[in-house]
């Protein structure tokens, strides 16, 4: 995924909400706050393609 694509995704409120949810889940697993940047990078790598396929047909 290109950086410009990531920037566009991060402008979408639904994406930010999904990342916040991911942040909470992954922080609970880790037993500490993993931080938004880490959660965003992880979400973008693991889930962004599926999310775009579903919401940005």
Please provide a written account of the structure.
This protein is mainly alpha-helical. It has one domain. It has four helices and no strands. α2 (13-30) packs across α3 (36-46). The chain is elongated. The two termini are 17 Å apart. The mean pLDDT is 93.
Secondary structure elements and their pairing?
Elements lengths: L2 H8 L2 H18 L5 H11 L1 H8 L2
Assess the beta-strand content as a share of residues.
under 5%
Structural class: mainly alpha
Low-confidence stretches: none
Q: Report the C-alpha radius of gyration, rounded.
A: 11 Å
The count of helical stretches stands at: 4
In short, what is this structure?
This protein has 57 residues and is mostly helical. Helices cover 79% and strands 0% of the residues. The protein has one domain (3-55).
What key attributes describe this structure?
single chain, 57 residues, mainly alpha, 4 helices, 0% strand
